[in-house]
């Protein structure tokens, strides 16, 4: 745009609409111009020659005369000046100002008429350019635009359909706002700030830049900071922009500076904290006035923080909050506790708080009684924090709580926890039970907790929580009992037998049909860890229909009818282990009938194929061992054949062997006699001999050994193993010598297999088998050495007349 000597843009003189003519702009008088600059004068002064100049321009002229060694002269007349005194031309200055105001009023009047929705884009842009020109003229106060009521009209242009108009409106408002607080206030009227904020997220990149620059100017006015923060999403978007890598550097810088201005409002600081900008918040928390610090601490307890922010807060303010909790007044301690509750809920931040010394004052507050004790609602918060801390897995044995060097796992401390559990409400009970759950989840501390529970006699009282109406309390109690059951199995079995309906409650939990919950998995795991040969407990479970429920659940999981989840493996393992209890009770006819009615042998055979679930496979193989040991007693031996009669001669008796099990020499089935051969379980058990987990191999080998034990036709059992490639794998188990139990079982099985001369002959040349048997003969226990001796005799490694072992009495 072409700028004339008067500082105005006259390029529109020839544009459509005859802007000057419409505005009735007065002509520029020559007397208004400075002879040196040819621009309208702002501060006219007169020389002794009567010529008038702009003060700044004539002062520069006179300085140059002096520098160049020339006498001062009048630039217009050339006369040498006897005096360089400059006399203000007040009348002329007033006249120029009046002329300027009239012209600017006329120009702004034209601009006002163009700032409407129906105006053309060109007229609107030209009007906005005039406003910008006027703002750039230092002699014209910007309140002239404000008084002309143009600001609302310019703000309306932010809603124009033209991007060029919107950009120009943003620029115009920014220029109006610069160094003019009244204009800032006027711009902020109505919903203008909301409109500006919309550009931050929905606008074109240039519009975003213009909007950020305008908000930055407005944010310099402290009274507007809260208003900007009140616009939904404003601070969230600015926080995002200030850390964005996809926005240009100048926009990022303006967004950052805008946020710094907005920090003057405490309400905005809270919003920033909500949106992840925590530095201003923590600054107030640590350095603000006591009231502000208290307010920030209380608010921290309400914030929802991401895990990385919890770590940041713990590192920055953790020690200060612990100090407040230790020595502050009740109101301050309450705020600190709630804040610590928030940031302790993540493992890493919890460990930072432990290093900051949170445990001693926390435990002290929890156990304190008397006039200084915390109210119960705050004890609940303390219990929650302690549960959070324990869940982080720190080494609590090494963290002293007092001058007596007691720790969280010391007997007296655990006794106090158990006392609180028994004498408080459900909320604190739940959290303290979770504390014990955390301490018993570690192999390093579980035995100390078990010892303290035993010494306090709290087993029965803990079991009673299984019937708690509050699900969280019940679940925490079941998890605790699950953790200690491997170490207190018989104690807990005795307690369950002595207790009332707690066993029924556990069965009811497992029977729930809302998917598979953490509570169900813990309940199943708890019952699974109780002594498997406790006949009274197993009978109780049968009476509670627990086994029928379990069979239904197992089949539902296997068939996909029960949806899984992250607890399905733990739940299924527990169910199968509980169900296997039936197979330890087969000396009682009622349990044999139950196993037959529900075809348990077939179910356990199917479970052998649950690849990846080692416990399920090992438990199923052990159950099949128990079942298979009964096969030789349950098989139906055929009646002896009756001799035939022909005249006076007896014919040779005949026997139909069709359908007779060659191992048990009777009529077998998987359902009625639990026969591994009839149930196609042999192949599946043989496959498990190649498993990577020793416990699975041990259980599978034990089940297969039932085909070789006394009371069955051993040669036929060997033949079955030969057909399924079982002999080769049993020999490999023997040679690998992975565990002592496996060696004992493998030696026993190999000795039985080698009773077949053809197999003994084939194996006699296998040096690895011979070495393994010799090793067992030399290093095994007494029984294993005896069996290994017999096996070595079968392969001619020892003479048959050897009498190395004396007979046992």
Features:
about 800 residues; mainly alpha; three-stranded antiparallel β-sheet; about 60% helix; disordered C terminus; HEAT_type_2
What's a quick, concise take on this entry?
This protein has 809 residues and is mostly helical. The chain contains 43 helices and seven strands. Pathway: Protein modification; protein ubiquitination.
Secondary-structure blueprint:
Layout: H1 19-23, E1 44-46, E2 52-54, H2 55-67, E3 87-88, H3 90-114, H4 121-136, H5 143-147, H6 151-156, H7 163-177, H8 181-187, H9 192-202, H10 205-219, H11 222-230, H12 234-242, H13 249-262, H14 266-274, H15 279-287, H16 290-300, H17 307-327, H18 330-343, H19 347-355, H20 359-367, H21 376-390, H22 411-422, H23 426-440, H24 446-456, H25 459-464, H26 471-498, H27 502-511, H28 518-529, H29 535-543, H30 546-558, H31 568-579, H32 589-597, H33 600-607, H34 614-628, H35 631-634, E4 644-646, E5 649-651, E6 660-661, E7 666-667, H36 682-688, H37 694-705, H38 714-723, H39 726-736, H40 740-753, H41 757-763, H42 767-779, H43 782-794
Antiparallel strand pairs: 1-2, 1-3, 4-5, 6-7
Helix pairs in contact: 3-4, 4-7, 7-10, 9-10, 10-13, 12-13, 15-16, 16-18, 17-18, 17-19, 18-21, 20-21, 21-23, 22-23, 22-24, 23-26, 24-26, 26-28, 27-28, 28-31, 30-31, 31-34, 33-34, 34-37, 36-37, 37-40, 39-40, 39-42, 40-43, 42-43
What does this protein look like?
It catalyses: S-ubiquitinyl-[E2 ubiquitin-conjugating enzyme]-L-cysteine + [acceptor protein]-L-lysine = [E2 ubiquitin-conjugating enzyme]-L-cysteine + N(6)-ubiquitinyl-[acceptor protein]-L-lysine. InterPro entries: ARM-like, ARM-type_fold, Armadillo, HEAT_type_2, RING-Ubox_PUB, U-box_domain_protein, Ubox_domain, Znf_RING/FYVE/PHD. With 809 residues, the chain is an all-alpha fold. It is 62% helix and 2% strand. It has 43 helices and 7 strands. Helix 39 crosses helix 40 and helix 39 crosses helix 42. The protein starts with 18 loop residues before the first helix and ends in a 15-residue tail after the last helix.
